[in-house]
Amino acid sequence: MKWVEKLFFRRPARLYDLVVLWDWEYDDDLVQALLAGAVRRRLSACAFRSAELTAFVDLCRNPHYSFPYLIDRASDVHPFLLPVLSELQQAGSQIINDPQQMIWCRDKATMHLELVQRGIPVPYGLILSHQDHLEQALQQTRDKLGSPFVAKPAEGGGGEGVILDAQTPEHIRQVMRESRLGKVILQKRIEPAEIHGRRAWFRVLYVMGEVLPCFWDDRTHLYSLIDDLSAPWVAPLTDLVRRIAAMSGMRFFSSEIAMTAAQEYYVIDFVNEMCDMRLQSRHTDGVPDALFHRIIDLLVCRPPQLQSEIRTSSPVRKGGIFKKGSVL
Question: Structure pTM?
Answer without folding.
Answer: 0.87
